[in-house]
């Protein structure tokens, strides 16, 4: 059964996600924004990891334009070319799944029960900026893993959802201040990590340290 939820246009983006998932039924939900094109096999590829391990709480794919080491190199100029690229690329490969401490939600594929237990997105991140950082840490605090599905590609037009707010309201800086003021503590970054390293672990148990950051380094907020 399809349910269409009509939401007051004044409700901020995180509030819209929360309202949708509040009414969602089933085991999983996918929060998506309006500046993406979703490609062949994207949904199946995200469901496979989250169904493979009960401790996985959040899975997100890569895209052509995204930070946080989630960008996938691509070469296409038309929708037809995009579809061909995605058809060849979006093949489920467990070794391409990476455990992360933070994810940008090209798609927030999550367990509905978990999302409700952590009370969804924090409305204090009303512009959307840093909402992904905040919810990543709260999902991990709830004992669940974040998985980057590097075997899955979607097209991102790039900051369409938040670009105007960045210019008109300086939303990125406001959200950054909110993130710090709310009390995200540097100890989060050190949890189960050595020397503040960001560690990627695939299904074979292979560990790859890609870069290191000092606590509260501005690199966390790029």
Question: Describe it for me?
Answer:
- The chain has helices at residues 13-23, 42-52, 79-89, 112-117, 131-141, 163-169, 171-181, 187-190, and strands at residues 28-31, 36-37, 56-63, 97-100, 108-111, 145-156, 197-201, 207-212.
- By secondary structure, the chain is α+β, with helices and mostly antiparallel strands.
- It has a single domain (13-221), classed as Alpha-Beta Complex (Spore Coat Polysaccharide Biosynthesis Protein SpsA, Chain A).
- Strands 1, 2, 3, 4, 5 and 6 form a six-stranded mixed beta sheet that branches.
- Strand 7 and strand 8 (207-212) form a beta hairpin.
Name the descriptors:
six-stranded mixed beta sheet; Spore Coat Polysaccharide Biosynthesis Protein SpsA, Chain A; Glycosyltransferase family 2 protein; two-stranded antiparallel ribbon; 222 residues; alpha+beta
Can you lay out the helices and strands and say which pair or pack?
Elements: H1 13-23, E1 28-31, E2 36-37, H2 42-52, E3 56-63, H3 79-89, E4 97-100, E5 108-111, H4 112-117, H5 131-141, E6 145-156, H6 163-169, H7 171-181, H8 187-190, E7 197-201, E8 207-212
Parallel strand pairs: 3-6
Antiparallel strand pairs: 1-5, 2-6, 3-5, 4-6, 7-8
Helix pairs in contact: 6-7
Total tally of structural domains: 1
Category by helix and strand content: alpha+beta
Backbone shape: globular
Q: Strand-and-helix sequence, N→C?
A: HEEHEHEEHHEHHHEE
Rg, alpha carbons: 17 Å
Helix share of residues?
Answer: 25-40%
Uncertain segments are 185-222
Give a count of the beta strands, DSSP E runs of length 2 or more.
8
Spatial separation of the terminal alpha carbons: 40 Å
Average pLDDT metric: 80
CATH architectural grouping? Alpha-Beta Complex
- Biggest beta sheet attributes: 6 strands, mixed
Beta strand %: 15-25%
CATH class: Alpha Beta
CATH topology: Spore Coat Polysaccharide Biosynthesis Protein SpsA, Chain A
Q: How many alpha or pi helices?
A: 8
InterPro entries: Nucleotide-diphossugar_trans (IPR029044)
Keywords: Glycosyltransferase, Transferase
Pathway: Cell wall biogenesis; cell wall polysaccharide biosynthesis
Protein name: Glycosyltransferase family 2 protein
């Amino acid at each position: 059964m399809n349910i269409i939820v009509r939401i007051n246009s004044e409700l901020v983006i995180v509030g819209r996600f929360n309202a949708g998932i509040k009414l969602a039924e089933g085991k999983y939900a996918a929060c998506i924004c309006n500046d993406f094109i979703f490609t062949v096999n994207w949904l199946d590829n995200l469901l496979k990891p989250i169904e493979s391990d009960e401790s996985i709480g959040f899975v997100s794919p890569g895209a052509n334009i995204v930070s946080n080491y989630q960008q996938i190199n691509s070469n296409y100029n038309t929708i037809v070319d995009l579809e061909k690229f995605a058809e060849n690329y979006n093949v489920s490969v467990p070794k391409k799944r990476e455990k992360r401490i933070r994810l940008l939600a090209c798609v927030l594929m999550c367990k509905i029960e978990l999302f409700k237990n952590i009370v969804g997105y924090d409305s204090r991140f009303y512009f959307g900026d840093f909402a992904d950082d905040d919810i990543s840490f709260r999902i991990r605090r709830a004992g669940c893993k974040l998985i980057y599905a590097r075997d899955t590609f979607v097209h991102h037009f790039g900051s369409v959802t938040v670009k105007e707010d960045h210019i008109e309201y300086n939303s990125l800086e406001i959200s950054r201040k909110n993130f710090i003021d709310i009390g995200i503590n540097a100890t989060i970054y050190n949890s189960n990590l050595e020397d503040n390293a960001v560690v990627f672990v695939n299904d074979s148990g292979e560990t790859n340290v890609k870069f290191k950051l000092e606590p509260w380094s501005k690199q966390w907020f790029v």
